């Protein structure tokens, strides 16, 4: 929460739920990563928040961009990035999208199987490819599934095949899980990556880059490591596993770049109980829920800080739910959320740490509710 955001909400009084992002925080976060890991290139994960103002600021600061689609590539180019500062980091791409990206000048592509390598080889001859390997994500609050990446042993065949098809096998990629607060998580993945560098070198494939992925945490209810702490641990692990032959390294911060820069303003629509029992848990319904941008409350993985005008008063555990008619639109029930007893229908609440993965998860009108409005200041 920044004074600039509070002042904006106080003076503009926007109607309905909205996200407000403070660019000063984004700038500070970028400079923090750049200072903590000066020899590592930063590729902002556009999917976290593709607001044009954010992309333009980061392009001006010198950021590179991790893009998941041709639309995101176009957005990065419009913001001022050059094609050599863009990675097509999605391992699941239509062949025509690969061709379009290559025509735009992008020549760095993620793969995780020989079939994807063959698509790249057909329409982007000579391009650089890096292979994503599976990572257990242990310790992450939002662990990633097996949807992306391959077993490390398979990466050898994937990158050898890329070499045989006249592509440039460029490196190894992994992701230690989103909202990863364990700075040692990268050590385990880097040990595997170093082994792959060695095994592929024996086959005549000389890799140059390790993509350290994202995972850098935003501040929610728990303390998180600083950028400096991440940098010390990660680069220490790089040196430990690669010795004097340090590869090029890149990181893909998304949540850690913009999560803490945003606050959602919402409204209490209803407060009720399901029975007349004295100790019955209250249900607090907001005008925003899973389908309005808070999808990361799925399985209650991300617990956002919630502020009200009654903070400091006596609180009681509440179930928090969204406004739609879908029964899945419940944010916190397994572990009820403490809210002030004095909270009233019509009260505004502020949901902190919501700068990442909220506008992009917001539906386009489920139940007739409009997409989450966003302001960048």
From TrEMBL:
<dbReference type="Pfam" id="PF02784">
    <property type="entry name" value="Orn_Arg_deC_N"/>
</dbReference>
<dbReference type="GO" id="GO:0004586">
    <property type="term" value="F:ornithine decarboxylase activity"/>
</dbReference>
<feature type="modified residue" description="N6-(pyridoxal phosphate)lysine">
    <location>
        <position position="47"/>
    </location>
</feature>
<feature type="domain" description="Orn/DAP/Arg decarboxylase 2 N-terminal">
    <location>
        <begin position="26"/>
        <end position="258"/>
    </location>
</feature>
<comment type="pathway">
    <text>Amine and polyamine biosynthesis; putrescine biosynthesis via L-ornithine pathway; putrescine from L-ornithine: step 1/1.</text>
</comment>
<dbReference type="InterPro" id="IPR022653">
    <property type="entry name" value="De-COase2_pyr-phos_BS"/>
</dbReference>
<dbReference type="GO" id="GO:0005737">
    <property type="term" value="C:cytoplasm"/>
</dbReference>
<dbReference type="InterPro" id="IPR029066">
    <property type="entry name" value="PLP-binding_barrel"/>
</dbReference>
<dbReference type="InterPro" id="IPR022644">
    <property type="entry name" value="De-COase2_N"/>
</dbReference>
<protein>
    <recommendedName>
        <fullName>ornithine decarboxylase</fullName>
        <ecNumber>4.1.1.17</ecNumber>
    </recommendedName>
</protein>
<keyword id="KW-0456">Lyase</keyword>
<keyword id="KW-0663">Pyridoxal phosphate</keyword>
<dbReference type="GO" id="GO:0033387">
    <property type="term" value="P:putrescine biosynthetic process from arginine, via ornithine"/>
</dbReference>
<dbReference type="InterPro" id="IPR000183">
    <property type="entry name" value="Orn/DAP/Arg_de-COase"/>
</dbReference>
<dbReference type="InterPro" id="IPR009006">
    <property type="entry name" value="Ala_racemase/Decarboxylase_C"/>
</dbReference>
<dbReference type="InterPro" id="IPR002433">
    <property type="entry name" value="Orn_de-COase"/>
</dbReference>
<comment type="similarity">
    <text>Belongs to the Orn/Lys/Arg decarboxylase class-II family.</text>
</comment>
<feature type="active site" description="Proton donor">
    <location>
        <position position="325"/>
    </location>
</feature>
């Amino acid at each position: 929460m920044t004074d600039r955001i509070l002042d904006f909400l106080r003076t503009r009084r926007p109607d309905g739920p909205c996200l407000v992002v403070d660019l000063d925080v984004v700038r500070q976060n970028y400079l923090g990563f750049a200072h903590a890991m000066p020899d590592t290139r930063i590729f902002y994960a556009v999917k976290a928040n593709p607001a044009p103002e954010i992309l333009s600021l980061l392009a001006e600061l010198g950021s590179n961009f991790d893009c998941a689609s041709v639309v995101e590539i176009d957005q990065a180019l419009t913001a001022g990035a050059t094609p050599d500062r863009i990675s097509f980091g999605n391992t699941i791409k239509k062949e025509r999208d690969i061709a379009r990206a290559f025509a735009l000048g992008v020549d760095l592509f993620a793969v995780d199987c020989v079939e994807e390598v063959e698509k790249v080889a057909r329409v982007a001859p000579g391009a650089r490819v890096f292979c994503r390997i599976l990572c257990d994500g242990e310790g992450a609050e939002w662990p990633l599934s097996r949807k992306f990446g391959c077993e490390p042993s398979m990466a050898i065949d994937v990158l050898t095949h890329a070499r045989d098809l006249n592509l440039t096998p460029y490196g190894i990629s992994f992701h230690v899980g989103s909202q990863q607060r364990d700075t040692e998580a990268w050590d385990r993945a880097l040990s595997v990556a170093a082994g792959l560098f060695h095994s592929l070198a024996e086959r005549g494939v000389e890799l140059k880059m390790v993509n350290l992925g994202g995972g850098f945490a935003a501040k929610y209810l728990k303390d998180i490591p600083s950028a400096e702490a991440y940098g010390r641990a990660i680069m220490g692990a790089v040196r430990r596993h690669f010795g004097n032959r340090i590869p090029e390294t890149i990181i893909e911060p998304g949540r850690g770049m913009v999560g803490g820069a945003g606050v959602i303003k919402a409204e209490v629509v209803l407060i009720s109980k399901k029975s007349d029992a004295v100790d019955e848990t209250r249900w607090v319904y907001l005008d925003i829920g899973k389908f309005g941008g808070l999808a990361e409350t799925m399985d209650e993985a991300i617990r956002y800080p919630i502020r009200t005008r009654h903070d400091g008063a006596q609180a009681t555990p509440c179930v928090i739910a969204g406004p739609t008619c879908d029964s899945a639109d419940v944010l916190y029930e397994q572990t009820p959320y403490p809210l002030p007893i004095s909270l009233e229908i019509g009260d505004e609440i502020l949901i902190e740490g919501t700068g990442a993965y909220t506008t992009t998860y917001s539906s386009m009108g489920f139940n007739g509710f409009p997409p989450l409005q966003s302001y960048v200041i």
